[in-house]
Amino acid sequence: MTDDQANELAAADFGLDQHTEGDAHGVDQIRALEEALLGEALG
């Protein structure tokens, strides 16, 4: 899965549309959360 696919999946999971204007900060928060969760999962 590419980063873009992962970001789209995360955005969908949170009921967000990452293409909405002004939502870039929310996407950054999702990316940070996803990276933290992935880091925990991989140990």
Q: Briefly note the structural class of the backbone.
A: mainly alpha
Gap from first CA to last CA: 19 Å
Q: What letter string, H or E per element, gives the SSE order?
A: HH
Mean pLDDT: 76
Q: How would a textbook summarize the main sheet?
A: none
What is the helix tally?
A: 2
In total, how many beta strands? 0
Strand content: under 5%
Uncertain residue segments: none
Radius of gyration: 10 Å
Shape: globular
Based on the structure, what is the oligomeric state of the protein chains?
single chain
Helix fraction, binned, reads 55-70%
Keywords for this entry:
single chain; mainly alpha; 43 residues
Q: How would you explain this protein's 3D organization?
A:
Helices cover 70% and strands 0% of the residues. It has 43 residues and is mostly helical. It has a domain of 28 residues. Helix 1 crosses helix 2. The model has no long low-confidence stretch (mean pLDDT 76).
